[in-house]
Amino acid sequence: MPANAPAAEALAVLQPLLPLSDSPASQTGPHEIDPFYLFACFLEWEQREDAGAAWELIAATQSAHGDTRAHALALLAGSRHLDRMGDTTTSNPYPQPNRLPAVENEMKTPYGLEIVDNCTECPLTKHTFFCGCSSQVREALDQVSHKSILPAGAILFVEGQAPRGVFIVCSGRVNISTASRDGKVLVLKTALAGEALGMSAAISGVPYEITAETATPCQLNFVDRKHFLELIAAHGETGAHAARSLSRDYQTAYRDIRDLILTRSSAGKLARLLLSQSPRPGLEVDTFVTTPMTHEEMAQRIGSSRETVTRLLSVLRKKRLIRVEGTSLIVQDRLGLEALAV
User: Fold this and answer.
1) What is the pTM of this model?
2) Taking the CB of residue 119, how many other CB atoms lie within 10 A of it?
3) CATH superfamily of 119-262
4) Low-confidence ranges of the chain (pLDDT < 50)
């Protein structure tokens, strides 16, 4: 029959390999093999890749019983394993779904990030990003960069380390910090997607002046110092982006130093930090601020201790300036916080 052509061609190849067996399917006597048994073997082969079940079906095609041979041939003709060995234009009485797309759809990317393998095709790039250059420059950047996925808590470089190169944040957040000799840590800022880290050290050749640690799972693009300097020399556009990035870093550092020194109290510093995490419009309605920062991280941001931050948050709640619901911190009185931050 035409429907059994794929099975017949497959059997011509597999017949010399047919093993001997005492199973019901291998008996070549006139007795009929239960069709349900053959169908169960078919399912085992299709769903679990059970080679033993496949041989049972093949052996049944040699049975002296006509109905058994017909059932076995019909099942083999419908097997997805033998489709490529026969005529693929014939109809399939047991059509099987294409499993590959389903498997691809169910695959999970590391940490749920949208993985980008090619800078020239990156959907995350914006004109404000360091990598928001022309396609020619991004192609050159892609050729000399190394992409990686890192979990939260990974150290990119530490203060005082010789500059190895520049890290470009593709997605996620990275904490930038410095530490005193007695181990007190001050978090200077949190770098977001599109920012380049370690650039000033890579250009000047002096050791890194800060420590960079991932605050969330991140995708990063690393360019070693030699290739980064060559990229700046070859493409003036890269130098312009580097200058803008360094200028923004300077302005941010100046603003943070001013706020840190001129704000007299720890309560004012904490109020300023909470305001910086909330939307800019000065609405009087409640503002939700979902922050992943712990009390320890808040303390590191304002140059204080964890105990002080815990006490100050309690005071702000009692004054009804803020309230906490789960992981969300709600600013109830933005004007009150702004007055405290002066």
Assistant:
1) 0.55
2) 23
3) Jelly Rolls (2.60.120.10)
4) 1-3, 13-14, 16-29, 84-107, 282-284
